[in-house]
Design brief:
Order of helices and strands: HHHHHHHHHHHHHHHHHHHHHHH
Strand content: under 5%
Structural class: mainly alpha
Mean pLDDT: 85
Radius of gyration: 24 Å
Distance between the termini: 56 Å
Length: 610
């Protein structure tokens, strides 16, 4: 263990500060439901954007990305398209504005603006989106919990702790014990302080992480001078052909096994599947999690777009400075690290904690640990807040106690928060590793979500029954696929899963009459989506001949292409910088300047045009 007294003091100070933040905002968050769940919609967009970016800077994802960068080099910038990361670009360009115009508090409440309060399938559609939201939230809680435990175990070996613990723990459950301890801190400040404390906690954590990331980047850059990285041909090239083309057999043979188990050898096919899935997933809009809650918390639709755009700008360069910095140190000192997991297998997700533990000085270790613990706590608290919103707002207040007092609503939020955390921890005990949970969430569960949520924005005839049937068939099929198909292969089954869900959506739509005309008119005039809305547009213009439809599809798509290019440049810029790849770095900077200039004219200056 390399932790010194100063490291422990830094970590302890941060943990106590989170408790203080929760207590400080307890009164303010208790004013009413919106204040607790959405910060009263008074927080500026840049604070919410920083908070949202901070929530995405999680331990589990960062461990995964460092292992990807180590194995795949520059080609690793594409693999996060599994989420897909470029959904933030779609949100930035138009979808955040569409979502925020509803004025809803949750994704389930938003459905009332699209399908109305009554009619065939309305209740069922409401319930299925709640079920999906809770499933995804619990999945992310388990995902974060597993990664946190594996991370802490590297720094605090169980042998040093077990003498002070009045119970025996087998080796495989040691990470879970650590996970529970730090989960309790995250649970306290998020449940007590609501959205206000979550945002402030995220801002503090982001500042800590920025300092830590820059410090690690400098250390890695200094260590690399005069040395060459032992990597295979093609590692420095972000572009690829049908096959991955990386052969580690003469350097670290175990890496080839990792590539094979990931299922990325036929990288061209893998990329096409990611892009195909990613485009539809992005068109569907944000999933019902902390990202959606931050969008709904903004002051205006224009602020919602600004917030989503700000996320990539402040997240990617800092995060990838950390990722490439730790990758450089891991490659330079690979043979001095022990990547063996307790079961004897090589675990490349251990590169991040081992590198920090072995090659960073006292004080900086504590700062990095504090930032990454804060990253876990931010992701965890944001997810808990989203789950609370769905249970309290869309179940308790809608079906159990519609006239509940503010004090009763806040109390229910406390109770629900504790229960949600307990279930998420239990699922974490059942999960095999970070990548298994991740693959199920992004490839299976989200695969079942996409079809219905694309149609809800773009097709007037789509109704609540279609939404319910499409979501249900998608979720059931996703659960079936996730149970019988290996995690690494789930992506390749996405077209079938999408087809099943799409068929269910269309069949369900024609099992019931169209949504009430007044609801459709209100939604179309308020949200102003583009798509297949011809009959509704004709009816609206018959009532109001001055009404003009949204004709910005072409501009939105043009901006999205530019946004994805900029996002990739922001990702690879710190990688080229630390690896001293000067010519590619100059190209990336030039592209960023050109794209930024164009988007200032085609996006920023026209935020109110849609």
């Amino acid at each position: 263990m390399k932790l010194h007294l100063i490291d422990f003091l830094i970590i302890a100070t941060y943990l106590l500060a989170t408790v203080g933040i929760g207590l400080y905002y307890r009164k303010k968050s208790s004013q009413d439901k919106d204040s607790y769940m959405l910060g009263g919609r008074t927080l500026p967009w840049y604070k919410l954007g920083l908070s949202d970016a901070s929530d995405m800077f999680d331990i589990s994802g960062t461990m995964w990305m460092v292992s990807l960068c180590f194995v795949y080099g520059m080609k690793s910038i594409w693999i996060p398209w599994l989420w897909p990361v470029f959904n933030q670009v779609f949100l930035m360009m138009y979808l955040s504005r569409w979502l925020r115009r509803s004025g809803a508090s949750t994704g389930a409440e938003w459905l009332a603006t699209r399908f109305g309060q009554k009619g065939p399938g309305v209740g069922a559609s409401h319930q299925v989106v709640i079920a999906f939201a809770l499933l995804s939230c619990l999945g992310f809680l388990a995902y974060g919990f597993v990664g946190l435990g594996k991370f802490i175990e590297i720094f605090i070996p169980w042998e040093l702790v077990k003498g002070y613990v009045p119970f025996a723990v087998s080796a495989q459950y040691v990470p879970h014990v650590y996970g529970i301890v730090f989960t309790l801190f995250a649970m306290f400040y998020s449940i007590v302080g609501g959205m206000h404390s979550i945002v402030l906690g995220d801002i503090i954590k982001y500042c800590i992480m920025t300092v830590a990331c820059v410090a690690i980047a400098i250390i890695a850059y200094v260590n690399l001078q005069g040395h060459e990285l032992a990597v295979p041909n093609g590692w420095f090239n972000p572009f690829f052909g049908w096959r991955l083309g990386l052969d580690w057999s003469k350097l670290i043979p175990e890496v080839n096994s990792k590539i094979s188990s990931d299922g990325y050898s036929l990288f061209g096919i893998f990329f096409m599947m990611m892009a195909f899935k990613g485009i539809f997933a992005s068109l569907a809009g944000p999933a019902p999690n902390y990202d959606m809650q931050k969008i709904l918390s903004t002051r205006s639709p224009e602020d919602a777009s600004k917030m989503s755009g700000f996320v990539s700008i402040i997240l990617l360069p800092i995060r990838y400075a950390l990722i490439i910095g730790l990758t450089i140190l891991g490659l330079l000192y690979y043979h001095q690290m022990n990547l063996k997991a307790p079961d004897g297998s090589i675990d490349f997700e251990r590169i991040l904690p081992l590198t920090i533990n072995n090659f960073l000085p006292a004080g900086l270790v504590g700062l990095v640990l504090t930032g990454l613990l804060g990253a876990f706590m931010g992701t965890f608290s944001g997810t808990v807040n989203a789950a609370q919103a769905y249970v309290v707002n869309d179940i308790y207040l809608k079906y159990v106690n519609p006239n509940a007092s503010t004090s009763r609503i806040i109390s229910m939020n406390y109770v629900v928060g504790v229960v949600v955390v307990a279930v998420g921890v239990l699922l974490g005990f059942l999960a095999k590793d970070v990548n298994t949970v991740l693959q199920f969430i992004v490839s299976a569960l989200y695969g079942g979500y996409i079809a219905s949520n694309v149609l809800k924005w773009h097709w007037w005839r789509f109704n609540a029954t279609g939404f319910f049937v499409g979501m249900t068939t998608g979720i059931v099929a996703a659960a079936f696929f996730g149970f019988f198909i290996e995690a690494a292969n789930l992506l390749y089954w996405f077209p079938l899963l999408f087809g099943i869900s799409l068929a269910g959506s269309i069949i369900g739509t024609y099992l019931a009459p169209p949504t009430e005309a007044a609801v459709l008119h209100s939604f179309y005039k308020t949200v102003r989506p583009w798509g297949f809305w011809g009959p509704v547009l004709a009816e609206v213009q018959a009532q109001d001949p001055t009404f003009q439809p949204n004709r910005n599809f072409g501009r939105n798509m043009f901006n999205i292409v530019l946004g994805i290019i900029a996002q990739l440049c922001l990702t690879i810029l710190p990688m080229y910088l630390l690896l001293s790849q000067h010519a590619p770095l100059a190209v990336v900077v030039v592209i960023l300047v050109i794209v930024g200039f164009i988007l200032k004219r085609t996006w920023w200056n026209r935020l109110s045009d849609d």
